[in-house]
Amino acid sequence: MVNAKKKRLERFDLRLFTRMIKKSNGRSPVRIDLWTKNISAKGAFFETDQKFSVGNKLEMEIYLTPRTTNTHIFNIVLIKGTVSRVEATGMAVCFSKKFRFAPQFK
User: What's the domain count of the chain?
Assistant: First the structure.
């Protein structure tokens, strides 16, 4: 039997391009483009010099390897998250449970 806790924490060293957006009341959204260092089902660590604060709520577009269908390439995951940790080399983000795949048109 697989240890459920270990399975839940499994991380993959995978570099995926990500666009993060932090919206603030009354201010223009702040957008940064960056790369994951590693990712799991619960969150990811992003290497970056630009960091948001712990607790900040974010919207993200995570770009995956394309999967082609008839007219679309479904390769973007739209997901929300919260900054959970900030380090000198980047920040960790916990994902929300809801996400959706979005098409990127050819």
Answer: 1
pTM listed for this prediction: 0.82
Smallest CA-to-CA distance from 92 within 37, 41, 22 is with 37
Q: Is residue 56 part of a domain?
A: yes
- Among 9, 25, 16, 18, smallest CA distance to 81 is for 18
Domain span at residue 35 reads: 10-105
| 46 vs 37: CA distance, rounded Å | 5
What CATH number corresponds to the domain at position 52?
2.40.10.220
Q: What are 48-68's pLDDT values in tens digits?
A: 999 999 999 999 999 987 655
- Identify whether the C-beta of residue 74 lies closer than 8 Å to the C-beta of residue 102: yes
